[in-house]
Amino acid sequence: xxxxxxxxxxxxxxxxxxxxxxxxxxxxxxxxxxxxxxxxxxxxxxxxxxxxxxxxxxxxxxxxxxxxxxxxxxxxxxxxxxxxxxxxxxxxxxxxxxxxxxxxxxxxxxxxxxxxxxxxxxxxxxxxxxxxxxx
Length: 135
Ligand code: HEM
What we know:
By secondary structure, this protein is an all-alpha fold. It contains 5 helices and no strands. Helix 1 runs antiparallel to helix 2 and helix 1 packs antiparallel against helix 5.
């Protein structure tokens, strides 16, 4: 059963990070669109992905992670999980910010880029902690 949840955790976390990474990049790309109907079309797709793909798959990652945590007794036997959960909190905040940026029509490009780059760095930190398990 652990293998099942580990596989589910891996595929869902790839989708969470990949979706958020690309969604934040499309916020930057959307700033270049000139026609209002193009902006509306892109916004519509972004909103649907955020609501129907990003949030449900984040739920799957968190639930499968909690099952793994119970099966491996990670909270009592190692410490890497605590900073990983701290980074998860930041990733969730970045997801909320991405959702707000999707709703916004006028936005300085540097703010959109900041969210995009931060998503990459935080996700890299989480994957490092979970795979290397440094402490
Ligand atoms: C977006 C959020 C998350 C990402 C990107 C993520 C990423 C990862 C990665 C890359 C591994 C690799 C394991 C390996 O190499 O064997 C892993 C394992 C693990 N994750 Fe997550 N994770 C996330 C959320 C969570 C949550 C919310 C929990 C639980 C509270 C959790 C608990 C675990 C545990 C216990 C393992 C270790 C399983 C083992 O030792 O076989 N994860 N995670």
